[in-house]
Amino acid sequence: MQALCAAGAVMAERIVIIMPQGIPAMTVFAGAMMLGAVPAFLAYPNDKVEAAKYRSGLAGVTANLKARLVVIDEGFPEEMLEYVSLSGETKVIRAGSGVSESFHDSPATPGIAVSDISAESIAFIQHSAGTTGLQKGVALTHAAVLRQLEHLADALRIDGAHDRIYSWLPLYHDMGLIACFMLPMVCHLPLIMQSPLDWVMVPETMLEVITEHRCTVGWMPNFAFQFVPRRTRVERRARYDLSLLRALINCSEPVRMGSMREFESTFAANGLRPGALQSSYAMAENVFAVSQSNVASARGPMRIYADGKEFRGSHRIVRVRDDAPGAICFTSSGQLLPNHEVRVVSDSDEELSAGSVGEILIKSDCLFNGYYNRPDLTAQAIVDGWYRTGDLGFLLDGELYVIGRKKDLIIVGGENLYPQDLEEIASEHPAIHEGRVIAMGLYNADLGTEEIVMVAEVETEEDLVNAAEIEHEIRELVMTGMGVAVGTIFLKPPKWVVKSTAGKPARSSTLEKLRGEHPNINFE
Question: How much is the mean pLDDT over the chain?
Fold first, then answer.
């Protein structure tokens, strides 16, 4: 705190932190909050994120924040500094080992008493993941954050004497910042954290950490529930003990039961208890969680089966048996947290009845006040106190089911298709890298409707030799699974699909890249 004060940190001033995952970055963030300053984590550059996209996002975010201080580590690339928007009053601090050598050597400076900080002042700024989302800083008050943490701790039945949090999640993402930093800090829980890059290179290390440190609670996006089993060699699985893991929470939209079953079946022999895999619906705009499945239930999240034709044709949920022809499985994201309300509305903003699919609107005591320095975006997002999430879903029997993004919906011949369903089917092909498929709907003037376009990464460069055969097999998989024809398939080499800073395939950026490589094709 003294070092931050010496560098010019004052109440309500923004402090940008661009440092690798670890205690030094967390120390700077917590110190800034205690001073009443407003910290914001930004993603640290790495070779997993496309350089041009990272530079563009970095420039946009720092320009919007107009920070007084930018704290970077000694290894931050000098050439990247030119993309950090600095005003004449902005000071850049390079932190060294510990927190930073310069921090340790700073002269004592009177700090600001914690009691001087208003509950309704801004605690910190989170940034939504994605390309355009990087420009949207979510301003959250101290009161909203503390209310969220109270709701979350109660829903998870946090036990300070026994719980240990595991995380590889980046701190600039709400899952990592709130669930795996703020929650353990406020509830005084041990936190065992590893670098996201270390995890993605060797996902099996997650199992080592959980076993060694006897972790009980963690969060992961949906793809990780398949990624870890598939990257853990069979002969090594017996060495891991997951018996103390009581809640490993799938925090994606939508939650895929197939992914969770793969993790569950793979590690059942390692002591993974029934019901340990749970689900949640969360977003930065609500600090974190909106809903949470019942962690005390041995069956895990609720799931239902619905008629596929009714769902795609009428956007209605008509329940059927799990073995009914064309049945689709939906997994609940749980029940709403206390003081949370959800409305599901049609395109004309009419409130829909239970089992009808529409846009999810939320209202809560944790909701953000608006996007920082973006009153235009705030006015579009918050209407009469309700936040328009842009997500599609439905309510049924007190449970919230999230299906996908409204803007990503594909409409072919009047039938509603969700890209996640198409992507999941295409990923079943052994030559396709899981999680590296993007399905889009592009208007075809000759057909008078959208057609399905897919971009898929192959596992190896050599697989492209058999591109025609792979394309044919993907078409057959989609036709069998969904009953629809795919228009165009673009098979690409490994690491071609553009990813967001959250590690997800970035649809809009990938489409722009596709336009650049195929200028003669109409992508409108």
Answer: 89
